[in-house]
Amino acid sequence: MNKYGFSTIVAGLVTATSATAFAAESKSTDLAVGLAVDQQLSAVFELDNQYRFIVGNDGGAFDYILKRGSFDTNTPVTWYVGAGAWTEWEGKEFGARVPLGINWDMSKGWNMYGQVHPELNLYSGPELQIGAALGVKYSF
């Protein structure tokens, strides 16, 4: 898959997700933006606390957060599990990933997250590898 194919898919997902979210008049869309170290230095966009788009120096990724939970009601730390896809801009590697992470609500609107994501590299045959990310987001 070349870089333009993945970019087209991501742009289509963003457009479809945004159109669906804004079409629902009774539900407001939660938007968070930030920076992360994921695909090297990356910009992060998160919609409805569930759809995470990562655009970085080395490539791009999309994560769908499947499940969220908390460790304790008295702590500002929660956990999440997701499913996603990633690619390099040069089109040399791409695959699927499973983000396993924690969130820390630092203050009103500010959130820090860290995750490890086992990856399945599909470029030249299936190969398992592991990645990680650390980011900060601000929710509007």
From TrEMBL:
Keywords: Signal. The keyword Signal applies. Residues 1-23 form the signal peptide. It comes from the Bacteria. This is Outer membrane protein beta-barrel domain-containing protein. It comes from Vibrio galatheae.
